[in-house]
Amino acid sequence: MPSLKGWGLSILLALSGHAFATESSTLFETQLDNGLQVIVKSDHRSPIVVHQVWYRVGANYEPTHLTGISHMLEHMMFKGTENMAPGEFSREVSRLGGRDNAFTSANYTAYFQIVGREHLGRVMEMEADRMANLKLTEEEFQPERNVVIQERLWAIDDRPSARLFEQFKATAFMSSPERNPIIGWMDDIKNYTLEDLQAWYDRWYSPSNATLVVVGDITPDEVLTYAKQTYGQILARDIAPPRSAVEIPQQGQRRIILKDAVPVPSLLIGFHAPSLVTAEDPADVYALAVLSSILGGNDSSLLTQALVRDQQLASSAGSFYRFLGRLGSQFALSAQPNPGVSVAQLEEALLAQITRLQNEPVTQAELNRVLAQAEAAHVFSQDSIQSQANMLGMLVSVGLPASTFDDYVDNLRQVTPEQIQQVANRYLQLDQSTVAILEPSGETNRRPAARPDFGGRSH
């Protein structure tokens, strides 16, 4: 389950730590009779294909007592079907000379294989099989639940920075499922039943709730032929819409302090912000994305220059803004103080940079720097067929057109210094902020959990 992180170095790098792009002239889109959405992008530079199936279900779809069940089901999808033994799926992909994996996010659950073009039909046959014929048993479920428990201990509970971010989200969001961790809260993980998993699979794993994405050395006609022979044989099912999940308006700043065995403090400040899905005006999202890159995109960014180099208050400082969420986002700043600098001093300095941007437009030179980085990333993005497939799948899974980023560079070029100043004033208000602080507890002997055995798959 490779992690898909948030927006960072530039606008393109803001998506899962990679840069992606699509060209509408090379995209083929259709829908099978059973509702399966099909997207194909041909790229004939190498005789390989990326085959992905994306389900529109993730942590943001889960009720409060079943947090993390989408991720748990992702694990169980490798535990056999009526036609394949547990683990046989991945063994077969390996035998074909390919590799496979899966990942769960707040908005989707996705499964992928990378194989030679001659093996596409076979992996589509296997993926269609587990879409329709997953076999869930207590014998496989109980040990795999323990794997997920260990994964949570390893990835979050024994990592202070991960716990800080988890508690930050749980504080920033009060009613939206955005507050819940993708892996789930530990008590929920320990109380899943096999019936819970079966019901979740039956509700969401249907062709009418899925998107097939294929990118690589293949033609749309070939993909469509295979798709009709495999996925096309699965009966359509009606999918009930997810429950309403509106975040209640924030009424004042929220603060949380954690203590743990860390050598230095950490500071995280976040503000509610729209995503491309929720924004009334998409121009605000592009302006916020540019603002995030100006503040903390890389070593030449404003926060690094001001807090790390000039004032020498911080050892590191940055920002992030994830704007492909189905239910909104957070615009966040982070920093670690230098020895002798208090968290209060660092917080004041961070907020001073926000105030500066609210009072003074950024320079055209600062804006041009970010645009140049984004355009370079746009060109670089074409090198990876998996990156191209990931972008297509993410976009359609949150309800955006596959062609959303066709003209993204043009959208960035339209952002002005005045727009950046406007969104800084509109969204970066203290009474809409959440402050999370990680302080040293004085302990030094915390022993981290061992990395779980994921059965040959890299999580």
From TrEMBL:
Its cofactor is Zn(2+). Residues 438-459 are annotated as: Disordered. The keyword Cell membrane does not apply. InterPro entries: Metalloenz_LuxS/M16 (IPR011249), MPP/UQCRC_Complex (IPR050361), Pept_M16_N (IPR011765), Pept_M16_Zn_BS (IPR001431), Peptidase_M16_C (IPR007863). Coiled coil: none annotated. Transmembrane segments: none annotated. Residues 1-21 form the signal peptide. GO terms for molecular function: metal ion binding; metalloendopeptidase activity. Residues 38-183 form the Peptidase M16 N-terminal domain. Keywords: Signal. Residues 192-373 form the Peptidase M16 C-terminal domain. The keyword Signal applies. GO terms for biological process: proteolysis. Belongs to the peptidase M16 family. This is Peptidase M16. It comes from Thiomicrospira aerophila AL3.
